[in-house]
Design a protein that fits this description.
Layout: H1 2-20, H2 25-32, H3 42-48, H4 56-62, E1 66-73, H5 86-95, E2 124-133, E3 139-142, H6 144-147, E4 152-156, E5 162-171, E6 176-180, E7 190-191, E8 202-207, E9 215-226, E10 234-237, E11 249-252, E12 256-264, E13 275-279, H7 280-293, E14 299-300, E15 303-306, H8 310-316, E16 324-329, H9 334-338, E17 345-349, E18 352-353, H10 359-365, E19 372-379, E20 382-389, E21 391-392, E22 412-414, E23 419-423, H11 426-432, E24 437-442, H12 444-448, E25 456-460, E26 463-464, H13 468-477, E27 484-490, E28 493-499
Parallel strand pairs: 7-12
Antiparallel strand pairs: 1-2, 1-4, 2-3, 3-6, 4-5, 5-6, 8-9, 8-11, 9-10, 10-13, 11-12, 12-13, 14-21, 15-16, 16-17, 17-18, 17-19, 19-20, 22-23, 23-24, 24-25, 25-26, 25-27, 27-28
């Protein structure tokens, strides 16, 4: 019998060592030395996980600052009520608005889809999210999409006290909102320095996924400066985030909030290993404006922009691929008044380098309207400095395209490139505010580059084209064996194409 017991003990110990080999090498060796000894004590077992983070103190420290947010919506006389509409399901894929599961504890009863609700009924549960205490006097930060469209916002603290919150302001562009409850002496979070955040470091989230309050999940920072939004780069993590986590804090190992959990990448509506958080430095800037003015003001200069590809940058003589390509300019906008032209590449704004197109709206947006700023553009092979007065961001205006009403002048042909072009008529010139030639037909290398009939060619190989004569002169100077760039306008948008002869 003693031999049987000894075999079982050795078998168990061998199994323990095999599990340990999946741990870091140093840990596996330490456990392996236990062979032939008694089973490990509690302290020895703890050494197996030594080096892994312990989140218990962080939860105790930050947990009381995290709140649950429920939103209510007054019943509508017409149309479907409650969550479940197609529009909300589409939003779920991107913003995962926190609608509780039907079978979750205390989940609200949902109204039948498509059935009208009497207008005199009390407000119905709309959704659920998270938030955290920004200051001891009752200011709470969350996501704008959590409180959007809500008639009432109910905040529940960890001590189970409930408050009806007042919406101070919400900014859809950054998805940040601030609400206020009538309470004092609240445990406020510590705000961390996002610039110190490193890819690979441990972070933790606290929130109410599926209505399960004060749930803790953890992971690492997967990437920084992830471009998924127009006005801010996100922090990407692998922390498990699900419906209801929206608006909750992302916390570093020092117990500081470095982000607001806002989005996930998902094909199912649930967590798939990728989540995004709003950087706290940007969120604080937005919250300060919301608390002061109830809204956020941003600068604008009135341009539509695009990326500068490596091939286009090389063909223009720009060198490295950087800057923002001006594709169109709004009539009467600051950019129009400053003298910017479609095809310009903005490489600096107010002394800040524009490394990629997404940098420009962020830098301009953070500039106070009315500020006189300087910018540098790359135009036809040379840098040009100019001054511009930033305006306040407003809805983008659309301009009407004028239909040709006059006959065009005789066409010119660049046979080897597959181009047949013609001069613009007076109406087209007035609409474009500049010259150019219209593509009458396209084939061969030009067609492969993406040019189409009806496009208006504005530049060829950094040479401005105002009329047919310019086009023919520019084509005559080209090396027919080398690629060249073409700046053209299609509708309201200007873009570059790289024509590769002989391909």
């Amino acid at each position: 019998m003693t031999g049987v017991v000894k075999k079982i003990a050795l078998w168990l110990l061998a199994g323990f060592i095999r599990v340990a080999t999946a741990l870091p090498l140093g840990v596996a060796v330490a456990v392996g030395t236990l062979a032939g000894a008694a089973l490990p004590t509690a302290s020895q077992a703890q050494s197996v996980v030594k080096g892994l983070p312990d989140f218990t103190e962080l939860v105790e420290q930050v947990g009381p600052s995290v709140v649950n947010i429920r939103t209510l919506e007054k019943a509508k006389a017409n149309g479907p009520a409650g969550p479940g509409s197609d529009e909300e399901m589409q939003e779920l894929f991107r913003r995962f608005f926190g609608v509780p599961m039907p079978n979750a504890p205390n989940a609200p009863r949902q109204a039948p889809r498509g059935r009208a609700q009497p207008s005199d009924e009390p407000a119905q549960p709309r959704g659920m999210g998270s938030g955290f205490v920004l200051s001891a006097d009752g200011y709470i930060m969350t996501n704008a999409h959590v409180v959007e469209g809500a008639d009432e916002v109910i905040v529940t603290l960890t001590d189970k006290r409930e408050f009806k919150a007042k919406l101070i302001g919400a900014d859809k562009r950054t998805d940040v909102a601030v609400v206020k409850i009538a309470a004092t002496g609240l445990p406020a979070v510590k705000v961390g320095d996002v610039s110190r955040l490193k890819v690979g470091e441990w972070v933790m989230a606290i929130g109410s996924p599926f209505g399960l309050e004060n749930s803790v999940t953890a992971g690492i920072v997967s990437a920084k400066q992830r471009d998924t939004g127009e006005y801010l780069p996100f922090i990407q993590t692998d922390v498990a985030i699900n419906p209801g986590n929206s608006g909750g804090p992302l916390i570093n190992m020092r117990g500081e909030v470095v982000g607001i959990n806002s989005q996930i990448y998902s094909r199912s509506g649930g967590y798939m290993g990728i989540s995004f958080a709003i950087p706290m430095d940007e969120a604080i800037r937005v919250s300060e404006q919301l608390r002061q003015n109830g809204r956020v003001t941003r600068g604008r200069i009135g341009v539509q922009i695009g990326e500068v590809t490596k091939e286009v940058a090389e063909s223009l003589g720009l060198g490295a691929s950087h800057g923002a390509l001006v594709r169109s300019i709004e009539n009467g906008s600051p950019a129009d008044k400053a003298g910017l032209e479609p095809g310009d590449i903005i490489i600096r704004f107010d002394g800040k380098s524009i490394d990629k197109a997404a940098d420009l709206p962020r830098i301009v947006g953070s500039t106070k309207p009315g500020t006189r700023s300087n910018l540098t553009v790359f135009r036809r092979g040379a840098n040009k400095d100019m001054a511009i007065t930033v305006a306040e961001l407003e809805p983008v205006k659309t301009s009407k395209a004028a239909a040709p009403t006059e006959e065009t002048k005789p066409a010119g042909t660049a046979q080897s490139m597959g181009l047949v072009v013609a001069d613009l008529n007076e109406v087209q010139k007035k609409e474009l505010k500049r010259g150019g030639v219209r593509v009458e037909s396209v084939a061969d290398a030009s067609a492969r580059a993406g040019l189409r009939e009806g496009d208006v060619i504005l530049q060829i190989a950094n040479t401005e084209i105002t009329q047919l004569r310019d086009f023919e002169a520019a084509m005559a100077k080209l090396d027919k064996n080398k690629p060249f760039n073409v700046l053209f306008r299609r509708g309201e948008v200007v873009q570059f194409a790289l024509v590769r002869p002989g391909r």
